[in-house]
Structure formats: structure tokens, C-alpha cells
Amino acid sequence: MLADHRNVDMLVNNAGRSIRRSVALSYDRFHDYERTIQLNYLGAVRLILALLPSMRAHKSGHIINISSMASQAPPPGGSVYSATKGAVDTLVKHLAAALGPRGIRVNAVAPGVVATDMSNFAKTDAGRDYVLGLQTFRRLAAPEDIADVVAFLASRDARWINGETVHVDGGSKL
Questions:
Q1: Per-position DSSP letters for 29-73, written without gaps between them
Q2: Dihedral in degrees, nearest 10, Cα atoms 112, 113, 114, 116
Q3: Rg (CA), the chain
Q4: 3-state DSSP call for residue 28?
Q5: Is the Cβ–Cβ distance between 84 and 33 less than 8 Å?
Q6: Which CATH code for domain 10-168?
Q7: At what angle do helices 30-37 and 79-99 cross, to 10 degrees?
Q8: What's the rounded Cα separation, in Å, for the pair 133 and 141?
Q9: What would the pLDDT profile of 126-145 be if each residue is shown by its tens digit?
Q10: Would you say 168 and 144 are in contact if contact means Cβ atoms under 8 Å apart?
Q11: d(CA 130, CA 145)
């Protein structure tokens, strides 16, 4: 639990893990599915619930969840990851409606493939070709490409945006 969260007015939920296998393929790998759901969805819910009292006390706040392009365009073998990020997108809508009257904005950013350890598959020739074939810009996103959108959503400039999932995916799947 957080030691002191009385002064929190912004939360960015950026934890995530991905597994590459279909949910229908193997019951013996169920613990992998559970761990993914625990981190990607329930971890976000737990942190939001822990910090909401502070945000309610301030009568304002920003919650920004990191979703994924995979919630709308599931990659091969990405059913569990995609489902957790779809659940995050749905959570954003419900929380925005419930918390908006209290001055708390809730949004999500849905990146495409970002050059991080989580996208090691894109370091192979086949993986890189697959990813570049999805995008209009023909490059992997840099973490800064996503961070800039998160910073915008946390800013006053985004004060009238609530309940949205902003796709930051380099024009993927156009």
C-alpha cells in the first residue's frame, strides 16, 4: 500500500505485461493468464481505488491509463493481453462518467508498438516487418511519442477531454 497518498492529483497507470498465446490453447498455462489480468487490469483498478480518496478530497484529478492498440486490433496470439486492455478502455468510460461530476478526468492512451523491452518480438526481422507493415510512419514508436500525449492529457489544455482512449499508434491499421 502507498505510504502517503494524500496529495495525489494525477495517476498514470503504466504497468503491463503481455503473453503471446491464445486463451483457447492451453489450460495448463492459466496462471500466465491470471498474472496478466492481475497486472494489466486489476492492478490499475487497485491503484485507482487506493488514490481516489485523495482526488475526491481535492475535488479534482486526472487518471490516465495506458491501454493498447491491441484492444481494438488484437495481434495473433494476443487474446489475453488484448482482453485486459479492452477492459481498461471500458473502465475508462465508466470511471469518467462516475468521477466527472467530482472534477476527476479519466482517459487512456492506446499506443501501438513502442521500442521497449515489452516489444522484443519486433527486434527480429519477421517481427519488425510485421510491425512496420501495420504503420503509416514505418517505424516503432519511441517512449517519448507516448509520453507527450500522456503529458497533454494531464495538462490544462486537455481539460474538456474525458472518457476517451487516444490512439497513439503511428496510423496503424489505416
A1: GHHHHHHHHIIIIIHHHHHHHHHHHHHHHHT-EEEEEE--GGGTS
A2: 140
A3: 17
A4: helix
A5: no
A6: 3.40.50.720
A7: 30
A8: 14
A9: 878 877 787 788 878 889 99
A10: no
A11: 20
| Residue closest to 102 by CA, chosen among 66, 63, 46, 50 | 63
d(CA 156, CA 148): 14
CA distances from 53 to 58, 94, 103 (A): 9, 18, 13
> 3-state DSSP call for residue 167?
strand
Q: Which long-range contacts (CB under 8 A, 24 or more apart) does 33-39 make?
A: 33/80, 36/80, 36/81, 36/84, 37/80, 37/84, 39/15
Per the CB < 8 A criterion, the answer to whether 92 and 153 are in contact is no
Residue numbers annotated as active site? 81
C-alpha cell at 118: 515489452
Question: What's the angle, vertex CA 148, arms to CA 80 and CA 131, rounded to 5?
Answer: 45
Instruction: Tell me the per-residue pLDDT of 68-118, one tens digit each, with 9 for 90 and over.
Output: 887 777 666 667 888 899 999 999 999 999 999 999 999 999 998 876 776
Task: Inform me whether the pLDDT recorded for 29 exceeds 90.
Answer: no
Sorted by where each begins, the domain ranges of the chain are: 10-168
